[in-house]
Design goal:
The structure is a homodimer of 128-residue chains. The first copy, chain A, is mainly alpha-helical and 128 residues long. Helices cover 56% and strands 11% of the residues of chain A. Chain A contains 7 helices and 4 strands. In chain A, the strands form 2 sheets. In chain A, strands 1-2 form a two-stranded antiparallel ribbon. In chain A, strands 3-4 form a two-stranded antiparallel sheet. Chain A binds a DNA duplex (30 and 30 nucleotides) through α3. Chains A, B: Residues 11-79 form the HTH merR-type domain.
DNA sequence: ATTCATATGTTAGTTTTTATAACATTGAAT
DNA sequence: ATTCAATGTTATAAAAACTAACATATGAAT
């Protein structure tokens, strides 16, 4: 279980994210609207945020504080790309895309764990 | 910001804990009743769990699977002690006590951060 | 100065989640 | 058969979060 993977795990409700980032719910949702973050959703449609999301939001706040507007922030985020390794390829993609994919995988893993992986100690999963 | 400190930070709602530990809400609350965990509370009285809590719960599940009853688990938890360093002393206490204290400090830190530590990047705080 | 767009605030109404508390069930030990 | 421990279930209330709409402030452009 990679560190990147762990950081992509959707865990926190919006209230916690508000506290940790000092952003309002309105702001957080607005940034999602602009696809700067793509929080996961619970079954009941509640946003669940990962540590990656927290990072992104903190950076957004930082950039806003520097007087950069949304368009600028989008650009910054789009520019910074990372590599994602599939079975057959190494794909270069934006932070946001990468986060979304990792989160997808993470949720898959959670669903797995929910049913089959009964005996496993998650502290191995979760050793921050 | 110590790792221990980070692990004591109350972040997750009970729904996430249920998924991660494969325990029911009933069980989790019952273990709290028996003070095997002491989750923090939000302003609105919702339980907020730390990674330490997750660990504890996973261990409880483990011990239950091994046929150990609550009394036994309490004993196990009480026996395993750790050191907590205050200004003037090194205090030896149970896991549960230690977790409660660290969580207390953590919430204090959160309150601080909420008001004063405006500019700080929490990813330094949170580098799992 | 007016207009316009952006970023955020605010409010209303609804749904989901969580809380407590009480009562029910199950299995093991006496 | 009774008792107790652990957990299930249900009812009810409160809190948190959702969407959507409208309001407002600020700065840029005309």
């Amino acid at each position: 279980m990679s560190r990147e993977f762990r950081r992509a795990m959707p865990l926190l409700p919006i209230s916690m994210v508000m506290q940790l980032t000092d952003l309002t719910a309105r702001q957080i949702r607005y940034y999602e609207e602009h696809e700067l973050i793509v929080p996961a959703r619970s079954e009941g449609n509640r946003r669940m945020f990962s540590l990656d999301d927290i990072d992104a939001l903190l950076e957004i706040r930082e950039l806003l504080d520097q007087g950069i507007n949304m368009a600028g922030i989008k650009k910054v985020f789009a520019m910074r790309t990372k590599d994602y390794v599939t079975n057959t390829d190494i794909v270069r993609m934006s932070d946001t895309e990468l986060r979304a994919i990792l989160r997808e995988e993470m949720q898959q893993a959670q669903r797995m764990q929910k049913t089959s992986l009964r005996q496993g100690d998650l502290s191995r999963f979760f050793q921050f």
